[in-house]
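To illustrate the input format used throughout this study, we show a single complete record. The first block contains the structure-token representation of the backbone; no residue identities are included at this stage. The design step must infer an amino acid for every position from geometry alone.
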């Protein structure tokens, strides 16, 4: 019976991770669209003076986020349990790092940078909860 409970707990954790990955893919996908379509607006929200070079860089980051969002969605819907757990660990660290880097931005902190950092920390916490929670 104990092995059965353990297997059910593991499967519940995998289901939670899949949900967090799916939610993250939507958030990163929306960020990607903003970065590709309106990099000057996004730069302004971050407190940067926009330049054509910076806008180009933001568009490249946006395209990379499109790939990440697609992979996150794919893993969440079609990935093996092992790949889902591995992706959760990678995203847990990456989301936390995104939060830290956002707070270290070389511009004055404002409501958007703080909110964006909180999104990163929130997703890192969600991955931690999904992988460690026993119920």
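Output of the design step:
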């Amino acid at each position: 019976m104990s092995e059965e409970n353990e297997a059910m707990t593991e499967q519940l954790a995998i289901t939670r991770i899949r949900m967090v990955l799916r939610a993250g893919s939507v958030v990163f996908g929306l960020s990607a669209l903003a970065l590709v379509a309106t990099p000057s607006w996004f730069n302004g929200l971050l407190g940067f003076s926009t330049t054509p070079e910076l806008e180009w860089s933001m568009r490249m980051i946006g395209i990379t986020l499109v790939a990440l969002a697609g992979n996150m969605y794919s893993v969440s819907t079609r990935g093996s349990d092992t790949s889902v757990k591995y992706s959760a660990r990678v995203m847990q660290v990456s989301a936390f790092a995104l939060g830290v880097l956002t707070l270290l931005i070389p511009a004055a902190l404002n409501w958007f940078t703080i909110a964006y950092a909180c999104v990163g920390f929130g997703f890192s916490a969600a991955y931690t909860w999904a992988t460690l929670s026993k119920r």
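Structural context for interpreting the output: Residues 2-132 form one domain. The mean pLDDT is 94.
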